Amino acid sequence: MHKLQIKPLIASAVVVIIGFVLLFFIHNQWGTQNVAVNNPVINKVESSSRSIDLKTIIHESEKSVVQIEGQNEFNTITGSGFLYNNKGDIITNAHVVKDADVIYVRTANARAFPAAVVGMGKDTDIAVIRVPQLAGQNSLTVEKDAQAEMGDEVIALGSPHGFQNTVTLGIISGTERNFSVDGFNYENIYQISAQITHGNSGGPLINRETGKVIGINSVGTEDGTIGFSIPISKVIEKVTKWSNEAQNEQLDFANTSEIGSNTKPKELKENAEYIIDYFFESIIIRDYVGAYTLLGSSMQAENSYSDFRERYIHIIDLEYSDFSSKIVKNDQIETTVNVTVETNLQNKEETKKEVFKYVLTIGNENDQLKILNLSKTLVE
């Protein structure tokens, strides 16, 4: 009788063991395999979460935006432009350079170079100028086909009234606007709510979602509340044709000696603060390479890039204010600035805030402004 009862028990135990083994195997398979979900709603959410950070768009775009000065014997016209290819070609407005005898550009890190006209529209307010020294540098990506629509968020970059690296935000508030100003015909252009004024002319209009150039800022109302931008898709074919046909030896470049000098006290102070702005903005956005390139040769000799990066990599937030500058030599300026830094404590989840007083010496090295010396002290 006992033997008859043991067999069912053994059979039941075997079934239970096999069941556990199968469940364990299935669980492992589910844990190691990706589940494919074909759901457009989920795809849309994932796509929107990857939209480019605003600060990143601005910082990366500013590297390719330049201030343009067209000079003749009577006056100086200031405008903006942006690099769009690897030849050092810059798109701007024709009205910025059409009357200039001498053209030079100033980059975001205050480097100045002579430029020459590659092509210029007669009725269309578009021009291309070339700076060979900027060949191979960062250029902006141009949206060649798509048209902007009402309500699209946009970013306008430029140098209004000579204030370099100025950014305004807005939307496309109108399309297909038509009018004429100073002999130029503006047809089917964008109306934008982003403020633009004198000096913004020629600067890029950037789509907030994609980070691509969709227009060239060209005209603004006197109060600066409404702007108009030429769609890049309307002119890119002509611009490309000019660039492809132009040869450097056929272009008329200004002599380097004709470029405005950095040694003027007011200009040196402004350019030094551009350098410092660019330095700290690079640290904020974690562009350590960009920040390192601003250092003079002696500072780079004393600090390798890896050491420099290690010094700043733990910073998670940085704010700076209270510029105070003084001339220390004819071609050098010393600037003091207060910097509040928030850093990660090493191997901990805590953060620490500290205030430092930075003293930076900006001066010319090989005809370009560089950070020649940098020191900091902790403010109690």
Reconstruct the topology from this structure.
Blueprint: H1 2-32, H2 40-49, H3 54-62, E1 65-71, E2 76-83, E3 89-92, H4 94-97, E4 102-106, E5 112-120, E6 127-130, E7 153-158, E8 166-181, E9 184-192, E10 204-207, E11 213-220, E12 227-231, H5 232-245, H6 265-284, H7 288-292, H8 297-302, H9 305-312, E13 315-329, E14 332-344, E15 351-365, E16 368-378
Antiparallel strand pairs: 1-2, 1-4, 2-3, 3-6, 4-5, 5-6, 7-8, 7-10, 8-9, 9-12, 10-11, 11-12, 13-14, 14-15, 15-16
Care to describe what's here?
- It is globular, with a radius of gyration of 29 Å.
- The longest helix is centred in the first third of the chain and has 31 residues.
- The strands form three sheets. It has a six-stranded antiparallel β-barrel with strand order 1-2-3-6-5-4.
- By secondary structure, it is an alpha+beta fold.
- It folds into three domains: 92 residues, Thrombin, subunit H (Beta Barrel); 81 residues, Beta Barrel (Thrombin, subunit H); 114 residues, Nuclear Transport Factor 2, Chain: A, CATH 3.10.450.
- About 6% of the residues have low confidence.
